[in-house]
Amino acid sequence: MAKAKKISTDQRLGCESLLGCIFQSWSPRRRKPSLPEKDHKAKDYLPPKSTTITNPKIIPRKSTDSFAQTKRQDPQKTKPDEINARKSSDSARKSSESARKSLSSASPRTESKRFSPNGVMGNIIVKPQPAVKSPDVSQTRSRWEGKTVNYRHDPETLKRMGNEEYCRGRFGEALVFYERAILADPKTPTYWSNKSAALISLGRLLEASDACEEALRLNPNYERAHQRLASLQLRLGEVEKALCHYNQAGKYTETKHIEQVEDVIKCLRRCNEARRSKEWNVVLKETCFVISYGADSSPRVYALQTEALLHLQRQEEAYDVYRKATKRLDIDSFIKIFGLSITSYILMVGSQVYIAAGRFEDAVTASRQASRLDPSNEEVKAVARKARAVAAARLTGNLLFNASKFEAACVVYTEGLEQDPCNALLLCNRAASRFKLGQFEKAVEDSTLALNLQPSYRKARRRRADSYAKLEKWQHAIQDYELLMMETPEDEETRRVLADANVRFKGAGSDLVVVN
């Protein structure tokens, strides 16, 4: 019989610790159930911050660490102080775990799905996302940008896609979708009305008006189209038509719309009265009121303003205003919307603008078109005669000037000025003829008149500067040369004559400093 071994105190304590760990690890209360339980303790388990769990159904066991430590260590080499320290740490871990379970079980189930301050939701650690600023809708990219769009969708889908682009501020793309919807179903007025809205946003008001009229042709009781066409007619200056459509727009018409149209009608009436009495300052003021009241795209209103500026000898402003009025000049569309008489008036004013700007061929063409549309209008006939006269005077005078027949050229330019006394180009050409004839004082007079009409007329300023130099009026000559140098600093010829004028002026005893 073998002798019984004497077990030391250290070995006995080690075995008790090992058995306790095994019992705690394999206790039925600690084992993971094979089926999900009714309670939600496992769901509310909060792992430590150092642990990242991707599967919330797998719960790690906490007691395996102490078991692994005990298994690795030799019981004979373990000291009592280390065992006591391990026991105290195990007890502290158990107490913290029980406290966490009590907190999670005390809260209702819905609270476990909320984000906690440390970014934990359930068993998944969620990193807090930074606040993202909502982008500007007009700056966002389209869903179909860079993609091949199937335009064989049903028209309602195409309309919906167009509406999405319109809301993003991408009116060109929206217009494409609306046009595709119209190709698929041209008898639905909504598609035409939406197309009109996109065209209005693109500034193509005449085409928008045509689309609105087509929508009303398909459905005369379409109130939204009536309201849209009324606002278009107001912007185009057709106030009587705008008032008619507002009366048929039903719930879309407000009192302020009617009042706005009535204000424009009153201003246009005062404009016509002032034009008949040739009160051009009043015409200019009333047209500004009309534009501020909503008729901001009316070719007729801009033509009235242009005519007033021409009679007030503000030719450069008149030219700019007329260009704004006829930015998209289409005579057929103008006739359809505004009628023959108003279109003829717009072309007649354009002929006057072209005469003042020295574009005589364009002036003759515009006057012929105006005469063709309104052949019985005496005012149109007079403008056509003037356009032909000044064009012929400029052409004949230039031929004589190039042939060095300066006196004859001067006579021809004077005949042209009898037809249009405020023509800056003919005045400048006559100044050049008089300069060649040695009539420097008269050349200065003609150049000054031309500059009063068109302050940025470079040729007239150079003629006057040269004439002042010939008259040895160096101070006036230097002022004109310096203005020319400010406009074109790279002009070497002007720089040379300016330096020469400064030298001569200093030689006359002046202390004028050259401005570079």
From TrEMBL:
Keywords: TPR repeat
Short name of any one Pfam family annotated for the protein: TPR_16
Annotated InterPro entries: TPR-like_helical_dom_sf, TPR_rpt, TTL1-4
Superkingdom of the organism of origin: Eukaryota
Coiled coil: none
Biased composition (Basic and acidic residues): 34-46, 71-100
UniProt KW Cell inner membrane keyword: no
Gene Ontology CC annotations of this record: cytoplasm
Disordered as annotated region, ranges: 26-143
Each TPR repeat, start to end: 155-188, 344-377
Protein name per its UniProtKB record: Inactive TPR repeat-containing thioredoxin TTL3
